[in-house]
Amino acid sequence: MTASNAVLTNPQATTDFLPLNGTDFVELYVSNAKQAAHYFQTAFGFQPLAFAGLETGLRDRESYVLVQDKIRLVLTAPLFKDSEIGRHIDRHGDGVKVVAIWVDDATKSFEETTQRGAKGCLQPETLSDEHGTVVRSGIHTYGDTIHLFIERKNYTGVFMPGFKPWTPKYQPPVVGLKYIDHMVGNVGWNEMNTWVNFYAEVMGFSQLVSFDDKDISTDYTALMSKVMSNGNGRIKFPINEPAEGKKKSQVEEYLDFYDGAGVQHIAVATDNIIETVTALQSRGVEFLRVPATYYETVLDRVGQIDEDLAPLSELGILIDRDDEGYLLQIFTKPIVSRPTLFFEIIQRKGAKSFGKGNFQALFEAIEREQMLRGTL
Ligand code: FE2
Question: 183 CA distance to ligand 1 centroid (A)?
Answer without folding.
Answer: 7
